């Protein structure tokens, strides 16, 4: 960061988030480092690997400061030109700049792009701007100032009151007011007390916690230390999915350097506070995202949840008072303490303050991570920031809340997203996954998919969840195979309501949401499967046949080229034909056709 | 994937892992993760040694080994395909990839080819949704895999594919 303040030097930030890494950003970074050392560049430069910038669709991203240039989809072979032209001579490489699809103009900085313009970054404020392995980078962006403020200028109860006043609600999905949780734990006389970070991100299609732990680990640590001061805790645990190896590494480096700088350990910053953190790697069980199951897992047991007659704030880890919050919640704490509750609460809606990070994925142009104020409409998120549906296809639904969430139809696109509005629409916030679906997504099959996911993840302890999910799955599978009956729909509803009423933990109570929400908004698709033995989206194999409309087919041959089983034949510029005996119904032809000539029968 | 994977476990190697941790229940998970990383599965002998080390019944260690998704009780193939079946990958056709692997290698999720070369499993969201559908071959991510693309990937790892198709 010091480098950026030096007028003559350039800071080159290479995105090394998961998406960019898979597209080769490590090679870009190494090549840049090498070329800048080897070649005779007269400009002084600092090259840093950063966490995820969120705009995964256009990765690998390279940002050059202070010029504020953003290059997209950079390959290692582009590096010599970047060094020679941009770094040395200050010239822009037009071909690496983002091209706005509307204006067709090249855009120099990511700040001018719709994807970023509507975003408001609090939890993600540092990601993409700092080297996550450098505590100095974090400190240079006001890191650990909130901790110093809390320790030196506030009493523990003032910290709790500040968090309550901010209106912050748990970002892991529960939406419980964070400050109220802290107050409950602070009021317990028992010692020791524990602080836990829930980094067992399990919702398919959600990766914001991964991104924060990888890209800005110190903000999580700072948030936890502030909580330890507020409630009087001595030990903290960060529970991370073992698959997130980069997050585990970066958190480990961050904890070590925080210890060396006196932010962790005894008498933190000269105060009475003694607190340290250790990392626990999770074993890959979705149910461990449930807080009581997670604590059982830390204790060294099978991760089964228990009933919460007594809250973890009273009896949690090893029976002691425990505050457990999600990664994104922790990331907001330093901002609230530093800037004050009032400023935080000025953002958002009446019941949900601040911002929320969403992972915008599925059938959307700009896949990636976005952070917007609570209350932003789905339409803004999907169409303005996300750039709409690719390939000119039609929007069908958006799924929020992970496997326990629900599907929301087009008629509700103007919904202002917050904890309460999503519940009313029959879905939920969950951890913030937004999965966009187009007319090639079958809503019955998607309900089956989620129930199948949950069938593998139900711990099996209570009967309504264990047997209910199995019954739902069998019924949905039969419908997808064309063996459904109309009375099945009532049966699905009946089981769903029983599970909602009688399951032990939130996994079982919400497991029927995907079924109920698709039944509510997309009943006609269920009926098409049952009455007409037809899958309108062309996804359920047994019910699908693709055919080419000879009137619209131009004979371009794109489908033939992409068919993996050579089932399509036809002369150039003549209508093509699909051999139904060879066809495996993979849908490559319909997805590649530019003229909508492939039809679902 | 680290170079030492798939080495054949012996008592000495197992002890070396176990002795990195104190003999308390809360370290069972960490010990099993390290074993899984090194051998690609949890050998029965290893589980028995963990039970002794933490002074708990074998049944408890075994119940954890079967509960958590990260563990396998049987050895995996030289190349372990993990097809991401997170939501974004699912709606972009991960099931087609699974079908293609079955067609060419004859294995379904959870299975290994008889020659020990390939195994297949599905995983829940690897957080690379922008690259959907994604396939991991050991630790290498293959982005935006098509039904024809997976055939090329199998070939690139030395697999024999059905010659009648691309």
Class inferred from helices and paired strands of chain B? alpha+beta
What Rg of chain A do the Cα atoms give? 26 Å
Q: What is the number of helical segments of chain A per DSSP (H or I, 4+ residues)?
A: 25
Low-confidence stretches of chain B: 1-5
Got a strand count of chain A?
A: 19
Strand segment count of chain B = 4
Share of helix among residues of chain B?
A: 25-40%
**What topology, given as strand order, has the largest sheet of chain A?**
12-11-15-13-14
**Global geometry of chain B:** elongated
CATH architecture of the largest domain in chain A: 3-Layer(aba) Sandwich
Q: Which CATH class of the largest domain in chain A is shown?
A: Alpha Beta
CATH superfamily of the largest domain in chain B: Glutaredoxin
Largest sheet report of chain B: 4 strands, mixed
Q: What class would the helix/strand composition of chain A place it in?
A: alpha/beta
Domain tally of chain B: 2
> What characteristic shape of chain A results from the CA principal axes?
globular
Predict the CATH topology of the largest domain in chain A. Answer: Rossmann fold
Assembly state: heterodimer
**Which class of the largest domain in chain B in CATH terms?**
Alpha Beta
What is the spatial order of strands in the main beta sheet of chain B? 2-1-3-4
Separation of the first and last Cα atoms of chain B: 29 Å
């Amino acid at each position: 960061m010091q480098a950026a303040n030096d007028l003559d030097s350039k800071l080159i930030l290479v995105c090394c988030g998961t998406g960019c890494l898979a597209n080769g950003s490590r090679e870009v970074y190494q090549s840049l480092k090498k070329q800048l050392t080897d070649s005779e560049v007269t400009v002084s430069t600092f090259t840093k690997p950063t966490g995820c910038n969120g705009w995964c669709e256009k990765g690998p991203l390279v940002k050059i400061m202070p010029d504020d240039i953003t290059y997209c989809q950079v390959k290692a072979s582009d590096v010599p030109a970047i060094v020679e032209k941009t770094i040395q001579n200050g010239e822009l490489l037009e071909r690496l700049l983002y091209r706005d699809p509307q204006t067709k103009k090249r855009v120099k900085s990511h700040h001018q792009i719709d994807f970023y313009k509507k975003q408001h970054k609090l939890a993600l404020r540092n990601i993409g701007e700092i080297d996550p392995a450098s505590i100095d980078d974090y400190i240079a962006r006001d890191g650990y100032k909130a901790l110093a403020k809390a320790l030196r200028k506030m009493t523990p109860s003032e910290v709790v009151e500040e968090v309550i006043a901010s209106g912050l609600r748990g970002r892991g999905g529960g939406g419980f007011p964070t400050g109220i949780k802290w107050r409950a734990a602070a009021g317990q006389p028992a010692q020791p007390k524990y602080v836990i970070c829930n980094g067992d991100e399990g919702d398919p299609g959600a990766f914001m916690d991964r991104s924060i732990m990888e890209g800005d680990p110190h903000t999580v640590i700072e948030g936890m230390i502030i909580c330890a001061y507020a409630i009087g805790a001595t030990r903290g645990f960060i529970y991370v999915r073992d698959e997130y190896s980069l997050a585990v590494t970066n958190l480990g480096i961050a904890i070590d350097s925080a210890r060396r700088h006196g932010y962790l350990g005894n008498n933190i910053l000269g105060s009475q506070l003694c607190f340290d953190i250790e990392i626990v790697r999770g074993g890959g069980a979705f149910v461990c995202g449930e807080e009581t199951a997670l604590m059982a897992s830390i204790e060294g047991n099978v991760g089964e949840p228990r009933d919460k007659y007594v809250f973890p704030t009273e009896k949690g880890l090893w029976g002691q008072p425990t505050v457990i919050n999600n990664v994104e919640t922790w990331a907001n704490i330093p901002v609230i303490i530093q800037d004050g509750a009032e400023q935080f609460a000025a953002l958002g809606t009446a019941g949900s303050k601040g911002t929320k990070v969403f992972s915008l994925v599925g059938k959307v142009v700009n896949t990636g991570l976005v952070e917007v104020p609570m209350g932003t409409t789905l339409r803004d998120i999907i169409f303005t920031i996300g750039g709409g549906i690719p390939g000119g296809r039609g929007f069908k639904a958006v799924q929020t809340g992970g496997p326990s969430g629900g599907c929301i139809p087009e008629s509700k696109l103007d919904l202002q997203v917050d904890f309460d509005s999503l519940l009313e629409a029959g879905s939920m916030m969950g951890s913030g996954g937004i999965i966009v679906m187009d007319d090639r997504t079958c809503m019955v099959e998607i309900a089956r998919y989620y129930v199948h996911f949950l069938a593998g993840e139900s711990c099996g302890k209570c009967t309504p969840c264990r047997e209910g999910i199995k019954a739902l799955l069998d019924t949905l599978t039969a419908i997808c195979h064309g063996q459904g009956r109309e009375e099945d729909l009532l049966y699905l509803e009946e089981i769903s309501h029983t599970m909602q009423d009688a399951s032990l933990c939130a996994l079982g109570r919400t497991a029927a949401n995907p079924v109920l929400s698709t039944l509510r908004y997309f009943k006609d698709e269920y009926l098409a499967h049952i009455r007409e033995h037809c899958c309108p989206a062309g996804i359920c194999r047994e019910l699908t046949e693709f055919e080419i409309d000879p009137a619209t087919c131009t004979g371009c041959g794109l489908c033939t080229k992409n068919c993996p089983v050579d089932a399509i034949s036809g002369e150039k510029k003549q209508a093509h034909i699909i051999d139904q005996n060879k066809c495996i119904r993979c849908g490559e032809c319909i997805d590649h056709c530019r003229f909508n000539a492939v039809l679902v029968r | 994937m680290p170079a030492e994977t798939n080495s054949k476990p012996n008592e000495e190697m197992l002890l070396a892992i176990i002795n990195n941790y104190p003999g308390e229940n809360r370290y069972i998970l960490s010990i099993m993760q390290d074993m899984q990383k090194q051998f690609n599965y949890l050998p029965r002998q290893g589980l028995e040694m963990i039970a002794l080390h933490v002074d708990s019944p074998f049944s408890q260690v075994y119940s954890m080994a079967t509960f958590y998704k990260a563990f396998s009780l049987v050895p995996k193939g030289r190349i372990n395909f993990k097809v991401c079946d997170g939501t974004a990958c699912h709606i972009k056709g991960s099931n087609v990839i699974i079908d293609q692997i079955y067609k060419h290698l004859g294995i379904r999720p959870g299975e290994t080819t008889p020659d020990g070369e390939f195994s297949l499993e599905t995983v829940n969201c690897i957080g690379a949704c922008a690259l959907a559908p994604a396939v991991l071959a050991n630790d290498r991510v293959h982005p935006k895999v098509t039904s024809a693309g997976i055939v090329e990937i199998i070939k690139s790892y030395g697999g024999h594919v059905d010659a009648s198709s691309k």
